[in-house]
Amino acid sequence: MENKKVAVIMGSDSDLPVVQKAVNKLKSFGIATEVHVMSAHRTPAQACAFSANAKENGFGVIIAAAGKAAHLAGVLAAHTTLPVIGIPIKSSTLDGLDALLATVQMPSGIPVATVAIDGAENAAILAAQILGVYNEDLASKLSDMKAEMEAKVLEKDQKLQESINQ
Ligand code: C2R
User: Fold this and answer.
1) pLDDT at residue 106 greater than cutoff 80
2) Angle, alpha carbons 147-150-156 (nearest 5°)
3) Based on the domain organization, do 44 and 112 belong to the same domain?
4) What is the pLDDT of residues 115-161, one digit of tens each?
5) What tens digit of pLDDT does each residue of 45-61 get?
6) Which protein residue has the closest C-alpha to ligand 1 atom 6?
7) Which of helix, strand or coil describes residue 89?
8) Are residues 74 and 104 part of one domain?
9) Ligand 1 centroid – CA 42 distance (Å)
10) I want to staple 79 with a disulfide (CB 3.0 to 4.6 A). Which of 51, 83, 111, 156 is the partner?
11) 5 lines ligand 1 (CB under 6 A)
């Protein structure tokens, strides 16, 4: 089966400092990634066309990051059958709660898998897990990542026990 790409779309270049973490994580898994600024509000025609053609252009998952009145992920999801993962960005006086609710509260029929406010790394891991269903190499990288995480926590616990029992 051909390796699918992940599209990372952000509503503004001001979102990049957060979105970069998703891009870095996807790269660490060796996933081919395209990154764009597109907006459901400011470039609606481009955003809709990108999403409508994404499957045929070799993408397997779309990640959409936006702050404030974050309609981007929902609008992209409306134009494709690919899974869409939304990252609500903390970019306003409302600390990202506005973007969280706009992203997560999708009407029935058009799901957006929403991660935490600024949860870019988890968006990348979730995208990798989706692609990993049909990609054993990727699934094994994800298993390695979990094993590494487990080893780190066990080491921290070990150190904690040593300092507490001194
Ligand atoms: P600017 O910094 O460019 O003013 O953008 C962006 O994601 C950004 O967080 C401020 C915020 O507006 C968001 N934005 C959206 C959409 N387009 C841009 N929520 C959209 O289409 O949903």
Assistant:
1) yes
2) 145
3) yes
4) 999 999 999 999 999 999 999 999 999 999 999 999 999 999 999 99
5) 999 999 999 999 999 99
6) 11
7) strand
8) yes
9) 9
10) 51
11) no
Could you tell me if 126 and 142 lie in one domain? no
Residue 165 and residue 94 in one domain: no
**Best substitution site from 9, 15, 71 to test ligand 1's pocket, by max atoms within 8 Å of Cβ?**
15
Residues 116 and 150 in one domain: no
pLDDT in tens, 14-41: 999 999 999 999 999 999 999 999 999 9
80 lines ligand 1 (CB under 6 A): no
Domain count along the chain: 2
- Domain match, 127 and 153 both: no
pTM for this one?
0.96
Instruction: Kindly state if the Cβ of 12 falls inside 6 Å of ligand 1.
Output: yes
Domain match, 40 and 99 both: yes
| C-alpha of residue 120 to centroid of ligand 1, in Å | 16
At residue 58, φ and ψ (nearest 5 deg) are 95, 15
- Could you tell me the residue range of the domain that residue 112 belongs to? 5-134
Residues 43 and 54: their CA atoms lie apart, in Å, by: 16
In this structure, how many other beta carbons lie within 10 angstroms of the beta carbon of residue 161?
Answer: 10
